[in-house]
């Protein structure tokens, strides 16, 4: 459940007013909330080397402005107490971070959609992400490791205003297939459009799959109400498949001639296996 307090003063004015000596620290707090929310004040303090009281002062100010929301999280541990407070970016905060001309673009797409159907939004989504894909592919060239490709793609997303980052999942699991990476985006510059036209999320997911050269699965999107867009990258499954391919290639490779001779010598003509009987066994058989 989310809760927030609003203020009559416009958010943009409040943010500009907050850019005093604490402005840089507040921006760092907000950036971590965007990237790692839901996150507690204590966790923020540890990451930024600040006291919990100092962090809460910034969080309280941004909550008052409506930039940040409080999410009450209940622990899964048996016998856990009351829910703990976690902080996430709000929809109003997303707008503060930047949604260029989204209202106008959304209205234009609605009009085009009414006139020509779903082809217009899909064509625009394809064109929008095609430009990103061409640039990203150049930066990913030569990076073979899937984890490294996902990490680099997250950096490229950040450079374009998507606040990209990755999370490693299941790395302590002995089953390689259970290990994965989550490619996350803490901000979506086209969220308002994607809310009305989910094809933007679909096209972005397909772009990620092509860039990483692996089937990915979308776990959440901001357009659907989540605070972070999350894409599942099956790193462990791909590594397991690569190991299996390598073993098959090794088994199919031509054997050393001496090995084949020794193996053939262990069999009699006609393909029957040679049976060696010890003297003791001969006595028992006689």
Task: Tell me the layout of helices and strands.
Elements: E1 2-3, H1 11-17, H2 23-36, H3 41-48, H4 52-65, E2 68-73, E3 84-89, H5 91-97, H6 102-116, H7 119-140, H8 146-159, E4 164-169, E5 180-185, H9 191-196, H10 199-212, E6 217-220, E7 229-233, H11 235-252, H12 257-265, H13 279-285
Antiparallel strand pairs: 1-2, 2-3, 4-5, 5-7, 6-7
Helix pairs in contact: 2-4, 3-4, 7-10
What would the keywords be for this entry?
286 residues; alpha+beta; Arc Repressor Mutant, subunit A; three-stranded antiparallel beta sheet; globular; disordered N terminus
Description:
The chain is of the alpha+beta class. The chain has two domains: 96 residues, Winged helix-like DNA-binding domain superfamily/Winged helix DNA-binding domain (Arc Repressor Mutant, subunit A), CATH 1.10.10.10; 138 residues, no CATH class. Helix content is 54%, strand content 12%. It contains 13 helices and seven strands. Strands 4-5-7-6 form a four-stranded antiparallel β-sheet. Strands 1-2-3 form a three-stranded antiparallel β-sheet. α2 packs across α4. The chain is globular, with a radius of gyration of 29 Å. It starts with a strand and ends with a helix. The N terminus is likely disordered.
